[in-house]
TrEMBL record:
InterPro entries, alphabetized: FAD/NAD-bd_sf, FAD/NAD-binding_dom, Fd--NADP_Rdtase_type_2, Ferredoxin-NADP_redctase_2
Similarity-based family: Belongs to the ferredoxin--NADP reductase type 2 family.
EC number: 1.18.1.2
rRNA-binding in keyword set: no
Catalytic activity: 2 reduced [2Fe-2S]-[ferredoxin] + NADP(+) + H(+) = 2 oxidized [2Fe-2S]-[ferredoxin] + NADPH; [thioredoxin]-dithiol + NADP(+) = [thioredoxin]-disulfide + NADPH + H(+)
Reported cofactor(s): FAD
Protein name as catalogued: Ferredoxin--NADP reductase
Lineage: Bacteria, Bacillati, Actinomycetota, Actinomycetes, Micromonosporales
Residue numbers binding FAD: 41, 60, 68, 73, 113, 147, 305, 346
Gene3D superfamilies with a match to the protein in the record: FAD/NAD(P)-binding domain
């Protein structure tokens, strides 16, 4: 059942979001709007869909919401989000989740959207694991596409046993002996954040020079963090969980350190992944949209970093505006009697 959005929509909260549809055994559920990507644009799209009285599911391949912010710079201050003179990435994501929460979006995290088809003119999304979502409309907010952390080869057998690629909750590493691998912004941000919490922090980088912000590098070098350059992690020890690491300096001897948490901050690789096969009109790695943020496919909109049009600027601020445009246009496609303009949120209180 699709909600009837319009000026009345913001007076009520839509609590029942997705329901099991009749099926032939394939799990099939129904939702008004499926948002693909829980980055800042997707999270704001979830708010807007809820505000319009539409049920919404937010699908993301990563296990945490926040997209690039959570994966790459949760501890950095962002200075160009309207209304926030300075906001830490982590706090912006938490606020976006809180802003959408009254409308109870369903988060399907750690779950990649694999397929898109149309049945009776409506999009059907195929999710990793086989579940299908029948949607009133889809809003693709896939950012850089599917991004996966660059692996630390010696750590592969320890993933889930002390190896992480980003740190959703720094407090979880309090009192631990932490080894950070990498020489970029993420590695140094994690080092600066974890140093006051952890028992020890060692940062290992395989080159002499760092690619991180100079101010953060100076702060870390002046702190109790031990920084080892021209070095690699050559072995990890432990049964189920890591207990020690062997570090080998180029041309030098190997040293074994007690370690019970490893943060592999080696960067991410990104590609459009399955989205490239859906028949969307693309311009290199981006989805071409019109001024309504509509794609070439029926009932499929896009917003945020993943979109392309003349004059496109890839920033959080533009993604927010595009999310509002995409969802409000989707609302009218779902219910042609609905108004495009959603009404003012300031009237809702
Ligand atoms: C180090 C750094 C610093 C930055 N600083 C700033 C700044 O100060 N100000 C600013 O405005 N911008 C900044 N940016 C850019 C900003 O982060 C992006 O513009 C913003 O994250 C785009 O948001 P998004 O939601 O469109 O996409 P993303 O944040 O990229 O999120 C997209 C999400 O979609 C998911 N996804 C993709 N494909 C699928 C699929 N098939 N199935 C399921 N999930 C999928 C991905 O896993 C990802 O979580 C910075 C970027 C970086 C890397």
């Amino acid at each position: 059942m699709l909600a009837r959005p319009g000026r009345r929509a913001y007076r009520r909260h839509q609590h029942t979001l997705i329901r099991q549809a009749e099926s032939d055994g394939t799990p099939m559920r129904e939702v008004d709007v499926a948002v693909i990507g829980a980055g800042p644009t997707g999270l704001f799209a979830a708010y807007y869909a809820g505000f319009r009285g539409l049920s919404v599911a937010v699908v993301d391949a990563l296990p945490e919401p926040g997209g690039q912010i959570t994966a790459m710079y949760p501890e950095k201050l962002i200075l160009d989000v309207a209304g926030f003179p300075a906001v830490k990435g982590r706090d912006l994501v938490a606020n976006l989740v809180a802003q959408a929460a009254p409308y109870h979006p369903e988060y399907l995290l750690g779950c990649r959207a694999e397929k898109l088809s149309h049945v009776d003119g409506r999009p059907v999304l195929g999710l990793a694991g086989g579940e299908q979502l029948r949607c009133g409309a889809v809003v693709v907010t896939g950012g850089l596409g599917s991004f996966s952390p660059r692996p630390l080869p010696v750590a592969e057998s320890f993933v889930g046993g002390g190896i992480v690629y980003f740190v959703p909750e720094p407090a979880a590493l309090a009192g631990r002996d932490v080894l950070i691998v990498g020489g970029g912004d993420s590695a140094f941000d994690w080092a600066a954040t974890l140093q006051p919490l952890a028992r020890s922090v060692t940062l290992v980088h395989r080159r002499e020079r760092f690619r991180a912000h100079a101010g953060t590098v100076s702060r870390v070098l002046a702190s109790p963090v031990r920084v080892i350059v021209n070095a690699e992690v050559t072995k990890l020890y432990g049964d189920d969980a890591v207990t020690a690491a062997e570090i080998t300096v180029r041309g030098g001897a190997a040293e074994t350190l007690p370690v019970d948490a490893v943060v592999a901050a080696l960067g991410f690789t990104a590609d459009l992944g399955p989205l490239a096969e859906w028949g969307l009109r693309l311009d290199r790695r981006h989805i071409v949209v019109d001024s309504a943020m509509a794609t070439n496919l029926p009932r499929v909109f896009a917003a945020g970093d993943i979109t392309e049009y003349p004059g496109k600027v890839r920033l959080i601020a533009t993604g927010f505006g595009e999310a509002a445009t995409a969802v409000n246009n989707a609302a009218v496609v779902i219910d042609p009697t609905a108004h495009l303009f959603p009404g003012h949120s300031s009237d809702a209180g």
